[in-house]
Design brief:
It is a single chain. 38% of the residues lie in helices and 17% in strands. The chain has an eight-stranded mixed sheet, with helices on one face. The chain is of the alpha/beta class and 285 residues long. It contains nine helices and eight strands. Helix 2 packs across helix 3, helix 4 packs parallel to helix 8 and helix 6 runs antiparallel to helix 7. The longest helix is centred in the middle third of the chain and has 22 residues. It is globular and about 60 Å long.
């Protein structure tokens, strides 16, 4: 038991018998009258992949990207979604939180997206070091080079999206736009600026604002909801949704220097008492 939460269920992948998550239920030791936000009745937590070698960070990143791109087809996602749906149906969406770290945060993100789109349920969600399936442009030190790469990437991505749509600009807005539907769900993202796995979320949100400020908002609206991988998948008749891209988020950035990849990507950094961070709300409009 920790913080008055008791383990209710361990989530086990039936393919390899590994545990990938757990469901905790809140059991206060006595009746409390809360001032402000009350703890959730249930927390569904998903674990990250264990880093075994400091020298294999790039191999680890490649492995995570493969896992993320195939996550919707995994047995873990099916079990996690089924378990989360049962808990939400029983307790209500306002009484359930999703939490994840590393690839576990990708799983929580995917389940949270599904809840919004298919159950109209907005679960409070906390994502620690969520993987971003893209080259880590954010780690480039030269700001002009970084901005140039992002501008080029946005133009290319938007152009490919238009070409894949028969030369027509994809419609944005309206009830059939999944990105707009998701925009009212605002998960909490926690990223480390030195972490090659998740730092690209910083540039993803900041660049969207920069594009709007220079009058390229229309290009940004198209590019922000597509990835080149998702466009190619759509052209092949497969699921074309870029599941790591989200419209809105409370973004917290750990600005403390990290001595290693393991430290930058590890979960323990987030409960250090001397943590220095930046925080901003990004709301898709």
């Amino acid at each position: 038991m920790c913080l008055d939460f008791k383990l209710e269920q361990v989530l086990i992948d039936t393919n390899d018998q590994s545990y990938f998550g757990a469901i905790y239920e809140f059991y206060p030791p006595y009746q409390l009258n809360y001032v402000g936000q009350r703890p959730p009745q249930y927390v569904i937590a998903f674990r990250g992949k264990i880093v075994k070698s400091e020298s294999r960070s790039e191999e680890y990143r490649t492995s995570l990207n493969c896992m993320i791109n195939n996550l919707q087809e995994s047995r873990g996602f099916q079990i996690g979604l089924e378990s989360a749906s049962q808990v939400v149906s029983r307790a209500g969406p306002g009484n359930v939180w999703l939490v994840g770290h590393s690839v576990g945060s990708s799983l929580a993100l995917l389940i949270g997206r599904h809840m919004v789109k298919n159950m109209v349920a907005h679960l409070e969600t906390y994502l620690f070091n969520p993987p971003f399936a893209s080259p880590p442009i954010e780690r480039i030190k030269n700001e002009k080079v970084k901005l140039g790469l992002r501008l080029a990437s946005s133009v290319i991505t938007a152009g490919l999206a238009v070409a894949a749509n028969g030369g027509h600009v994809p419609k944005t807005g309206g009830g059939n736009d999944a990105f707009v539907t998701l925009s009212t769900w605002v998960p909490y993202l926690f990223v480390n600026q030195s972490d090659m796995i998740c730092s690209e979320y910083i540039g993803y949100f900041e660049h969207r604002e920069k594009m709007s400020s220079i009058g390229a908002g229309k290009i940004a609206k198209i590019a922000t909801k597509h990835s080149i991988g998702s466009i190619v998948s759509g052209a092949r008749g497969k699921d074309s949704e870029a599941v790591h891209l989200i419209p809105s988020a409370y973004l917290t950035i750990n600005t403390n220097p990290s001595q290693s990849f393991k430290e930058a990507h590890g979960i323990h950094q987030w409960w250090k008492p001397d943590l220095e961070f930046k925080y901003k709300l990004y709301q898709y409009k």
